[in-house]
């Protein structure tokens, strides 16, 4: 039992979350992975095939019961690494979305993630140490015309991550915010953004590379990491460009082609 | 009656919301105001003495039922002005806060505001006219230790406002984001906000609530995108883009950590 490092990764059935789980597995961690679809079990079997101790948990973290289910699966064990990665996007104009559309983004990205972090910080304060990696986004530094609620939820996540990091700076807990740019995952398909310039962009970042940088930053206890060169440039200049200009830039990337606006 | 203009203000029992409602009364709007406390009736009495036609609702917008009930009270009326102002803060360290208090803060500051903006946005686009004011905060530019979730909720609102302004830029509806600095309102004294013991609450330099609200109200009528009242706050908003967040967080800790 001694010496086993337990890593928990949410949103691990595909994309950056799956790659984070692979990083932890390659690092010799025991892992608990979670996602809302039943494909998480198949992912669990694949990872277990390479000799990793894996527990797969199917739970929708956008529901109060979902976060509880995950923590029941953790079962009061010491968690060394908590990677709060689960998130959803939803493209199109705000007024073309239904309330259920943006509600899901808020439930998963904000309420679920905050609940998870709240439990993780309390748990790690009791443990005396631990590492937290939160998947924010460079979208948080740029108002998201035609992806408005998503970008705003990432503004929330990026800022919350930095605030919690400051609060625990006299402990052995670290909080790292992974802020990827557009990454080649299922994200744009699920967000119904395949008909947008950013959805069609063939030069998206490799999720394995993004996860590797995030995992390394977490182990270093860095405050944040922006992956990809263009994304670094973008996050650097976003502080200097007025928000209204950033919003207009975002429109060019995220507005669906040839669809009527509701405005 | 039918040509009488309507202004709706949430969180109007005190502070910035009350002042916004007062300006609307002075401008001869009929007003519908709400808050989650009985003081909304005292506010309404004062506004009626100024000659206003005032409809009130005591409702908890941190719940979906409350939000729906309030929207039902708005009914299918033409809305000329909508001030999405209701919001709360939550001091002390993140791990010391109760989850239920955090959840309610998110529901009130983010989910409720987003839902009402969606409904009001659709209504005003259909009307072909309308002005919206959202009370964001310069807190949204700064990581906020010891008020962590609050600042993050305001980062959400600030970001959402700028995105919607761009989406609506060629339409008939304007949306203005009021981003006050620390202002002399009950936000620092309400026991449930848990900020009364913080240095910022005891500061002699809190912004004047009337001036803050006035800046927001005027910016809304002028259809401006955003307004940061006060010279110091303008400086903070400007520097927030260039000073590393780690330093901003440390500054915030000094102001917000309970003594």
Short description:
By secondary structure, chain A is α/β, with parallel strands linked by helices.
List the helices and strands and how they pair.
The complex is a heterodimer of chains A (about 260) and B (about 260).
Chain A: E1 6-10, H1 15-26, E2 30-35, H2 39-49, E3 54-58, H3 64-74, E4 81-84, H4 99-127, E5 129-135, H5 148-167, E6 172-179, H6 187-190, H7 197-200, H8 207-220, E7 224-226, H9 229-238, H10 243-254
Parallel strand pairs in A: 1-2, 1-4, 2-3, 4-5, 5-6, 6-7
Helix pairs in contact in A: 1-8, 4-5
Chain B: E1 6-10, H1 15-26, E2 30-35, H2 39-49, E3 54-58, H3 64-74, E4 81-84, H4 99-127, E5 130-135, H5 148-167, E6 173-178, H6 209-221, E7 226-227, H7 231-239, H8 245-256
Parallel strand pairs in B: 1-2, 1-4, 2-3, 4-5, 5-6, 6-7
What percent strand of chain A?
5-15%
Helical residues, percent of chain A: 40-55%
Write down the Rg of chain A.
18 Å
Biggest pleated sheet of chain B = 7 strands, parallel
Q: Bin the strand percentage of chain B.
A: 5-15%
Class inferred from helices and paired strands of chain A: alpha/beta
How is the CATH topology of chain B named?
Rossmann fold
Low-pLDDT segments of chain B: none
Strand order in the largest sheet of chain A: 3-2-1-4-5-6-7
SS element count, helices of chain B: 8
Work out the number of β strands of chain A.
7
Average pLDDT number of chain A: 91
Distance, first to last CA of chain B: 54 Å
